[in-house]
Amino acid sequence: MVSSDERVVAVIMVGGPTKGTRFRPLSLNLAKPLFPLAGQPMVHHPISACKRIPNLAQIYLVGFYEEREFALYVSSISNELKVPVRYLKEDKPHGSAGGLYKFRDLLMEDDPSHIFLLNCDVCCSFPLPEMLEAHKRYGGIGTILVIKVSPETANEFGELVADSTTNELLHYTEKPETFVSDRINCGVYVFTPDIFTAIQNVSSQRKERANLRRLSSFEALQSATRSLPADFFRLDQDILEPLAGKKQLYTYETLDFWEQIKTPSMSLKCSALYLNQFRHNSPHLLASGDGTKSATIVGDVYVHPSAKIHPSAKIGPNVSVSANARIGAGARLVSCIILDDVEIKENAVVIHAIVGWKSAVGRWSRVQGGGDYKAKLGITILGEAVNVEDEVVVVNSVVLPNKTLNVSVQEEIIL
């Protein structure tokens, strides 16, 4: 059981505008963590999962976006969940461990016994209370959420080897060139405050090496281009790799879903995963309808209360319809995200696509992708304020904001 005097804080790394270029054009005018998946901002899913942690004192979002980009959301989510959520802006990228270390004094104000660290661009069921219980049994300074993947895709992530009996982390390597293991790091951790000592030790060792090194001017120049800033610490290479095999770190394996959200295509896949999760934990968020007084709903569908959908439309499966969207008579939506203020006109079809804010899809038009979430043009994306005129077909294409399409296009990036 959890002791009543224990307190836990959670830190969610949200990154910043220098990253997320692969998420364009959807991140041109919106911070990537606020992009909606299953009708909720991306960062909302890990935040709401943190609410299930016993004795949670505070949630911190750490990144280097401007504070104003998160101010409104942080205020509303704090009120909604009745848990303080605070955004902490880094002056520059410090790395996943460095960002944690920079704010260590603030994080320790609540005198927490445990600190959760989550990456925002991860989609999973976030079994945080279960991780915490396992972590306490293990007795180390940290526990990593891991999942089994296919050997062909493992090298895209941090691969690790754990003891099959004790779950101790024995070996860790980030994106290895040769196959090490089909268990990978999910980017979700729980630590004791001893993690700060571990980061401090890395910092001290780095300074010692720098002081001991006597280099020629040429070697110094070469080394400077390779060395990291003194206050930049990567959790994987700088902390996990050296501590593996020292009875300090352990693993907790999830058998549920897990994906990384690096591209718009993956956001569409993850939206479907979260919609499916709603069916089990939050069925009240899912729409229903049989085509009489309201639209026909097939499978898992989220519809914002302010959206207007004609009763003859057919929606689903795996569809999210955002605020003030208007879906016309006879429209058909499958596996898509419809963003705020979009109009889908009569008899239009949208399949495997993301339709950007304030865009319009004309009568009898079709906006469609192939549904290969890993392909560069696997889905169709319309940026903000794109107008697809009547009877135009857009297939496997990306259209940047403020464009009007009056001819059909296929497998094109329209700048």
TrEMBL record:
<dbReference type="InterPro" id="IPR050486">
    <property type="entry name" value="Mannose-1P_guanyltransferase"/>
</dbReference>
<protein>
    <recommendedName>
        <fullName>Nucleotidyl transferase domain-containing protein</fullName>
    </recommendedName>
</protein>
<dbReference type="InterPro" id="IPR029044">
    <property type="entry name" value="Nucleotide-diphossugar_trans"/>
</dbReference>
<dbReference type="InterPro" id="IPR056729">
    <property type="entry name" value="GMPPB_C"/>
</dbReference>
<feature type="domain" description="Nucleotidyl transferase">
    <location>
        <begin position="10"/>
        <end position="209"/>
    </location>
</feature>
<feature type="domain" description="Mannose-1-phosphate guanyltransferase C-terminal">
    <location>
        <begin position="297"/>
        <end position="414"/>
    </location>
</feature>
<dbReference type="Pfam" id="PF00483">
    <property type="entry name" value="NTP_transferase"/>
</dbReference>
<dbReference type="InterPro" id="IPR005835">
    <property type="entry name" value="NTP_transferase_dom"/>
</dbReference>
<dbReference type="GO" id="GO:0016779">
    <property type="term" value="F:nucleotidyltransferase activity"/>
</dbReference>
<dbReference type="Pfam" id="PF25087">
    <property type="entry name" value="GMPPB_C"/>
</dbReference>
<comment type="similarity">
    <text>Belongs to the transferase hexapeptide repeat family.</text>
</comment>
